[in-house]
Amino acid sequence: MKKGANEVLFGLYDDEEILLKAVKQAKNDHLDIMDVYTPFPVHGLDPILGLSESRLHVAGFIYGAIGCLFGFLFMTWVFTRDWPIIFGGKPYFSAPAFIPITFELTVLFAAVGMVVTFYVICGMGPGTINPTLDDRITDDKFCIAFNTNDANQDAIDRLKGFFSATGASEVNTKTI
Amino acid sequence: MSATVSTIRQPLIEGGKTYHQITEDICTPTERTPSTAWVIAFLFAVTGLAVYVFCLAWTIWNGIGTWDLNRTIGWGWDITNFVWWVGIGHAGTLISAILLLFRQKWRTGVNRAAEAMTIFAVICAGQFPLIHMGRLWLAFFIFPYPNTRGPLWVNFNSPLLWDVFAISTYFTVSLLFWYTGLVPDFATIRDRAKGIRRKLYDFLAFGWTGSAKHWQRWESLSLVLAGLATPLVLSVHTIVSFDFATSVIPGWHTTIFPPYFVAGAIFSGFAMVQTLMLLTRKVLNLKEYITLEHIESMNKVILATGTIVGVAYLTELFIAWYSGYIYEQYAFYNRVLGPYWWSYVGMMACNVISPQVFWVKKWRRSIFVTFFMSIFVNIGMWFERFVIIATTLARDYLPSSWSYYTPTWVEIGLFVGTLGLFFTLYLIFSRVAPVIAIAEVKSILKSSGDQYAGPNAAHQHAAHSEAH
Q1: Taking 90 as the threshold, does the pLDDT of residue B416 lie above it?
Q2: What pTM did the predictor assign?
Q3: Any bridge partners for residue A175, and if so which?
Q4: Which chain A residues have a beta carbon less than 8 Å from that of B162?
Q5: How far is B62 from chain A (nearest CA, A)?
Q6: Is B214's CB within 8 Å of A136's CB?
Q7: Closest partner residue to B219 among A41, A78, A139, by Cβ?
């Protein structure tokens, strides 16, 4: 989504239970919700909104597997190929002694990889400024937003009607 | 969100809060000028930090000969402090990760500060192995990087190297977990801020908007990070215990060490969380969010882990006797009745006997008893590490090399100094970031707020009929 190019019509609700009913209503009315913004994760919202489950954990598994293999194979290569040294008469390839570091690298790769992926796919990062619709969304307001770039007056009136019918406490527009 | 709530559950948020009041209560301490109590505490902490910097400079300039380490006692206060600080860190991860997996809602009141404590404790812990190396400027030799000496790699079979990986992974993962949890709350502060503060929090909040998809990913990320952090935290103190357990020193070479160290770590960590929380809730006026219910829950953990630690001490003694191995028997005889008998007594009194007061509900819920107990436990756990390290090394295989060890002012200064470092970081944190996870507390309001749950709930009936 390009920044500064979207006309947004949004309604603010005072409670997450009213919001959930409103989102259900919007889906029934076949309204095209752009996004829903809430001050905390509202459980039960994702299925109503039709959001598919996040695949972040799959990415996490892949990163972890890479870390695991990298750690174990690297230590194996060092101690059997690159520079074999006898420590206390133990075999060069002493797999049990490699386990702790292999485990730590699995966790490290999975965690760092997932966190970086999370910020990248959410379009977030240090110093990133994403436009917000209202300052109270991170406080106590629950927001449903519609993109009204191509909407005619009838469609906008219909959305406004929807907001007043579902109990929005405020309705505003903003370009983001 | 009307969750099913057990009628016997006590509320976790008192004072009939609304979402907006939660924001106000938790954000205000970061917005107003610091209170006198904060300023005085900060001055003390910074003084401690100055002592640390001075002793650190003294150590680096003159070498670790300035400590009273000797021929057999090569690990004195420094490694004692290292193990103590790492242990303290464990409670933060336990609260934020393991209690998240167990869906314990009382975690939300204390997890943010506990995780901060973890990070700062690990920072303090990490100092000691580094300065113990003697030549701090060569500390990077511990990492396996392609170097011009062959490349000559590090010894991947050494528990000390496992420690390097364990502690650095633990620090990194804890930091990421903590910061990702903080991002939505930084956004809350950002949206209330003006001028230069707005710019600062714009940066810290990473551009958080509160979009439904972002929340979904955030929750998924938190859950998987908690799943990763749980075995990680158990592995960290296990690996720290390997530093001792894989050696061939009687008194160290025991298989009980990993679980015993982990239990002790959680025990001391919860005690430090109690110390911090009791002060924080008073100074920042957050008694309605960190309630007696939270304090009692943590005291139960302290009681359980303290008793586990007590059983481990007794098991050690029994196994030493039962082994029929005279060196092992002597090591433990010496531990209890040798020259350091006073530290063993201190350890037993503070770690095993005193936590038993928490069998009494009234004392579990007493702020006064809890505060004193939290200090006792931390003293006791410090003694435990000292007992393990000093008593064992003071009586070697060769009676001719037996010795005694007392710290110098430099070592004492370094320990007191890390307390200064720890509290300086914590006090800065309490000014910059919300000490309670705002979004998470809001998400449990409808199930754990005192207007919805517990004996005084006004809408209890309504909430129940909606539950299904």
Answers
A1: yes
A2: 0.92
A3: A7
A4: 100-101, 104
A5: 33
A6: no
A7: A41
**Taking a C-beta distance cutoff of 8 angstroms, is the pair B414, B125 a contact?**
no
Give the Cα separation of B204 and A160 in Å (integer). 35
**What residues make up the domain containing A159?**
7-52+136-175
CA distance B167 to B244: 16
* B140-163 mean pLDDT: 90
SS (H, E, C) A47-116: HHHCCCCCCHHHHHHHHHHHHHHHHHHHHHHHHHHHCCCCCCCCCCCCHHHHHHHHHHHHHHHHHHHHHH
Backbone angles phi, psi at A92, to 5 degrees: -60, -50
Same domain, A96 and A112: yes
Total number of domains in chain A: 2
Res B183: pLDDT: 94
The answer to whether residue A85 sits within a structural domain is: yes
Q: What is the mean pLDDT of each run of 10 residues along chain A (176 residues)?
A: 74 89 89 90 88 90 96 94 86 91 96 95 89 88 88 86 88 85
CATH of the domain at A33: 3.30.70
**Taking residues B427-444, what's their average pLDDT?**
90
Interchain pair B176, A112: CB under 8 A: yes
Same domain, A84 and A108: yes
- How is residue B42 written in tokens? 């900060």
How many angstroms away from the CA of B272 is the closest CA of chain A? 26
Q: Are B80 and B386 a contacting pair, CB within 8 Å?
A: yes
Q: A173 - beta bridge partners?
A: A9
Note whether A74 and A118 are same-domain residues. Answer: yes
Residue A153 lies in a domain: yes
Judge whether A142 lies within some domain: yes
A93 and A149 share one domain? no
Residue A104, pLDDT score:
95
Looking up tokens 């001028």 gives: B195
The dihedral over CA atoms of B18, B19, B22, B23, expressed in degrees to the nearest 10, equals -140
Is residue B176 over pLDDT 90? yes
Residue located via tokens 């290569």: A77
CA–CA dist B427, B444 (Å, integer): 27
Q: For residues B19-38, give the mean pLDDT.
A: 88
Query: For residue B21, how many other CB atoms are within 10 A of its CB?
Result: 15
Distance CA B174, CA B170 (A): 6
- The Cβ of residue B396 has, within 10 Å, a number of other Cβ atoms equal to 16
Give the distance from residue B193's alpha carbon to the nearest chain A alpha carbon, in angstroms: 10
Is the domain of A17 the same as that of A44?
Answer: yes
Mean pLDDT, range B348-354, rounded to an integer: 91
**Residue B399 above 90 pLDDT?**
no
**CA A146/CA A33 separation, integer angstroms:** 5
Which residues, 6 or more positions from A53, have their beta carbon under 8 angstroms from its beta carbon?
Answer: A46, B216, B220
The interface pTM score, or ipTM, of the predicted complex is 0.93
Residue A93: what residue type?
F
Shared-domain flag, residues A40 and A74: no
Q: Is residue A11 within 8 Å of residue A170, measured between CB atoms?
A: yes
pLDDT of residue A3: 59
Q: Based on the fold, state whether residues A60 and A118 are members of the same structural domain.
A: yes
Structure tokens at B364: 């579990």
What gap in Å lies between CA B185 and CA B324, rounded to an integer? 59
Token representation of residue B186: 């930084």
Cα distance between residue B277 and residue B292, in whole Å? 11
Classify residue A129: in a domain, yes or no.
no
